[in-house]
Design a protein that fits this description.
Largest sheet: 2 strands, antiparallel
Number of domains: 1
Number of helices: 9
Distance between the termini: 48 Å
Strand content: under 5%
Structural class: mainly alpha
Shape: globular
Strand order of the largest sheet: 1-2
Order of helices and strands: HEHHHHEHHHH
């Protein structure tokens, strides 16, 4: 396992190193090498997916909910890395594809890294991770309801992306903001449904 990653740039540099060493990068190699820090990046990816146009696909919120539930349960039971089915872990991209994607995403990652830093770390430490896991489980349970309220899944996606980034950067303030966004979105969804 690598040394603990503290920001997006370190995470993406690590993935670039894996691509250069192996010629290709599978999801399994990334999850195994990043270890417990893989929860943050995976929440980040799910969050970004929910904020993208993909969130408009019927059932996308429910599929995302299944992954969120899986992440939350594994955080609660204290797994050191995220379990996924082997067929998904074996999916890989070529070195060329990975490096091209990283060149595109690295400049925004540097900007985000300048805005995040370790603060209120008790919210993202081991105990704080359990709070994150509980939020993930609650989100997963109510996520199908968000399909009924336009754009509510996107708001949850922004919050999940922020939670994922908070876990990577040890930024408890960002996690606190994400918790508030999730609570407000849930409240608005309930009001709109009733």
């Amino acid at each position: 396992m690598v040394q603990e990653l503290r920001n997006l740039e370190q995470l993406f540099n690590h993935i670039a190193t894996l691509a250069n060493e192996n010629g290709e990068v599978s999801l399994g190699i990334v999850v195994e090498s990043v270890g417990s820090r893989s929860f943050g990046p995976l929440l980040l990816v799910i969050g970004l997916t929910l904020t993208s146009p993909l969130s408009g696909i019927p059932g996308m919120a429910s599929v995302s909910a299944a992954f969120i539930l899986l992440i939350g349960v594994q955080l609660l039971i204290g797994r050191h890395y995220f379990w996924l089915p082997h067929w998904l872990l074996n999916r890989s991209l070529s070195k060329k594809q990975v490096l091209a994607a990283l060149r595109w995403i690295m400049p925004p990652a540097r900007v985000v890294d300048r805005l995040t830093r370790p603060r209120l770390t008790f919210l993202v430490s081991r105990t704080g991770a359990y709070l994150t896991a509980l939020f993930c489980v609650c989100i997963a349970v109510v996520m199908p309801m968000f399909e009924l309220v336009p754009f509510s899944a996107s708001a949850v996606g922004v919050a999940l992306a922020a939670l994922g980034l908070a876990l990577v950067a040890h930024d408890g303030l960002l996690a606190l903001i994400a918790f508030c966004v999730i609570g407000a979105t849930f409240g608005l969804a309930v009001v709109n449904i009733l």
